[in-house]
Amino acid sequence: MTATTLAKHTLGPDGPPVSALGIGTWALGGPFTFDGRDAGWGEVDDEESIRAVHAALDRGVTLIDTAPTYGTGHSERIVGRALAALPDAARARVRIATKFGLRIDEESRTGGGTDVRPATIRAECDASLRRLGVDAIDLYQLHGGAESPTLAEDAVATCEDLVAAGKINYFGTGQDDDETLEIFARSPHCVAVQTQANVFGWSSRVLETAHRYRLAVLARSPLAMGLLSGKYNALNRPATGDVRLDTPWWTYFDEGSMQDWLRRLQSVRELLTTGGRTLVQGSLGYLWALDSAIIPLPGVRTTQQAVENTEALAFGLLPADIAEQITTLLADSPERS
Fold this sequence. Notes:
The chain is an alpha/beta fold. The chain has one domain: NADP-dependent oxidoreductase domain (TIM Barrel, Alpha-Beta Barrel). It contains eleven helices and 14 strands. The chain has helices at 46-58, 74-84, 88-93, 118-132, 149-164, 178-185, 204-213, 258-272, 279-290, 303-315, 320-329; strands at residues 9-10, 17-18, 22-24, 33-34, 37-38, 63-65, 95-100, 102-105, 110-114, 137-142, 168-173, 190-196, 216-220, 294-296. It has an eight-stranded parallel sheet with strand order 3-6-7-10-11-12-13-14. Strands 5-4-9-8 form a four-stranded mixed sheet, with no helix packed on it. The protein has a two-stranded antiparallel sheet with strand order 1-2. The longest helix is centred in the middle third of the chain and has 16 residues, at 149-164. It starts with 8 loop residues before the first strand and ends in an 8-residue tail after the last helix.
């Protein structure tokens, strides 16, 4: 195994050090609905979820990304249980990122719409602190809802108030349109932008803005919602009730689009598995080669997934020439911008 050295990562220019790989925890929330659609990844085993989180942390991961929306609070509670079981020294190394802006109802396990009014953001922050069992959130991210410059500016001002109050340490935005990103990025405690990035596509505009403001780039869907694991094909799709079958954000598993995505994957399969990597490890290595600011956030549901993901750290970046070939071969992807 030959690793191409990973750069050191921090949250922003002056933020805390973090691992080059994070943990995504959407799937740990279990079934729920949002805006009337299935929004979870199916049933979960909470004890296995905790073991998966611990497996990743034991292997060098120090960044966990979650959100109140995931399971309408359930994912945050599971992360909190995983943290509480750690020795103090291990817990001190972990950085927790969560979000605000989407409306949820914990009792009915439903959500819908957005709310970024200052009072709501403050209440959401307190609720997340309770579920996570922490005194302060390391990275508080806008999940959505800043539909105008005024709303974005008010959200930033509220986040700065939460920093002053000691409830959050830094903040960022997962709503990555130009206007919102610029408004957030200008604030001194904004250290990160979360954006979709995987071998199929990413936003050059977001990467350029992130570099201009020296923001960390947290890559959501780095494995294309699991398609890049190699587990799925036209005859083996996610189970009924899985968000991936009915979402307005991705088409990886849509009946009319899946074959095109599988064709693209097949065209780069051999390159992604260079040097003995699995498809997962090659896909993560590609993102590190693409941009040194990127911190992928692959989701985990099982210990096996956590181990495979973290073994990518030892392989490191894909070689530059291999990454360039992949970029060229997938130039027709509609997710490039």
